[in-house]
Amino acid sequence: MKTDICFRAGWPLIAGVLIAAALWGQGTVDTQNWTAADDHRNMLDQLGIKALRPGPSGNESAPNHANYDAATANPYPDLPDVLTLKNGKKVTNKAMWWNQRRPEIVEEFEREVLGRVPKAAPKVNWEVTKTADATVGSHAVVGKQLLGHVDNSSYPDIKVDIQMTVVIPAHAKAPVPAMMMFGGRSIPEVAFPAPVFPGRGGPGAGAGRGPAAPPPNADPPAIEQLIADGWAVVTINPGSIQADNGAGLTKGIIGLVNKGQPRKPDDWGSLRAWAWGASRGLDYLETEKAVNAKQVGIEGVSRYGKAALVTMAFDTRFAVVLIGSSGEGGAKLHRRNWGEAVENLTGSGEYHWMAGNFLKYGASDAAFGSKTAGDLPVDAHELLALCAPRLTFVSYGVPEKGDAKWLDHQGSYMAAIAAGPVFRLLGAKDLGVTEDYHTARMPAVNVGLLDGQLAWRQHDGGHTDGPNWKYFIPWADKFLHHASPAEHP
């Protein structure tokens, strides 16, 4: 009898374990109170990873501080050759790039680094929720606030409404180019509540493009410079697409398509989700008669600089990109041991940006052994190459003003050099540097390489692309053959 009582008392626990095991076998997990740590551990378990190497610290006095010694910065000095097929054949013409090599690179980024957009990703229905006449600087504009309602009929428990604004010069005589910004500054008349973006100022700030109240002698905010030059300005809120944390992976657009369940190893991460949202914004702009949808650009700073690069790489409809201070996971080479490393991106704080499979490259103990950045099949130069031959501007500031050494400006410059052969193959101009990526050194601060469709400029400001807008706009105008209203009043 005593045994029976013990059995009955323990039955709820045993039953719970059995039910949990059954649910796991069916791929169903209770994620109601899911944390980033829960999600991270789930992915490690799926991959058979027992331990990850810790990422280096940004504190230079810490025992595990990041490396800033040039002599040891290139432990894997040779990058995957951007113009060699996996079978060893050299790519010698445009057709081989578009039909063979580019698809290989896309597949490896999707499988191992950034994740795949589901083939059955839901449709987005755009609604204009507000329209207002306003002025930007001295220029009349028409502003629109929009919500992109994502079809959630497959899983009504998760609702996703993409927040976007469009500001168009009021008196344009023809469709105008447009610059879409991740989290950019709109006009008050149609602005959504301002989100806070890490490294880019607080609410109401210019989101990395200059504060709301510029200091004396500062450049005008990007929106004023663009409107004055006859561009439309589009802002899109990445947080309305997908949260910037691991706990959010069972919510937002990723959670919606997975019906609230954890990701599989090759499912998309937040960077790819934000890029998907930007592409849906471009879908809307293709219906906006006042905008030249063949001349739409994408821009972002810091983690949203990474997202801008990913957007441009995968959606060939975008004509131009301004990649601001993007660092690891953006324009910085993974194979460089300088500042932030792959291991930082595989930890629980940043892994959500990437595909689950990316965690393998930070593993020290796993069913498959261990892997490092040197095992990655692709690197940042190939992400930049996917943008070719379209207009690609890589922007950084200086550590003295807050664009930290952590971002590895030199490693990003090397990636741009190594992407050059694809631009040249496709009939575009690269940075025009004769050295290869092994030996090329960055030009001096404020010396731009702006003669080609691939461009580089390190300004003397901080963690922002603000000081580069006055160089970016005429550079883009030149290649897009766009004349500002001042030239043709």
Mean pLDDT: 91
The CATH architecture assignment turns out to be 3-Layer(aba) Sandwich
Q: What name does the CATH topology carry?
A: Rossmann fold
**CATH class categorisation:** Alpha Beta
Largest sheet: 9 strands, mixed
- In helices, the fraction of residues equals 25-40%
Uncertain runs with pLDDT below 50, 5 residues or more?
A: 1-26, 198-212
Give the spatial strand order of the biggest sheet. Answer: 2-3-4-6-5-7-8-10-11
Specify the oligomeric state: single chain
SSE series: HHEHEEEEHEHHEHEHEHEHEH
Taking the alpha carbons of the first and last residues, their distance comes to: 97 Å
Overall shape: it is globular
In the residues, how many domains can be counted? 1
Binned strand content = 15-25%
Task: Please compute the radius of gyration using only Cα atoms.
Answer: 23 Å
Name the CATH superfamily assignment.
Alpha/Beta hydrolase fold, catalytic domain
Tally of individual helices: 11
Would you report the number of β strands?
Answer: 11
User: What would you call the structural class?
Assistant: alpha/beta
Describe the structure in your own words:
By secondary structure, the protein is α/β, with parallel strands linked by helices. The protein has one domain (112-480): 3-Layer(aba) Sandwich (Rossmann fold), CATH 3.40.50.1820. 28% of the residues lie in helices and 17% in strands. It is built from eleven helices and eleven strands. It has helices at 2-25, 36-47, 94-114, 222-228, 252-257, 270-285, 303-314, 342-346, 380-385, 409-425, 469-480; strands spanning 49-52, 124-136, 139-150, 161-169, 176-182, 232-236, 291-301, 320-324, 363-366, 391-396, 454-458. Strands 2-3-4-6-5-7-8-10-11 form a nine-stranded mixed beta sheet, sandwiched between helices. The chain has a two-stranded antiparallel sheet with strand order 1-9. α10 (409-425) links the parallel β10 and β11 (454-458). α6 (270-285) packs across α7.
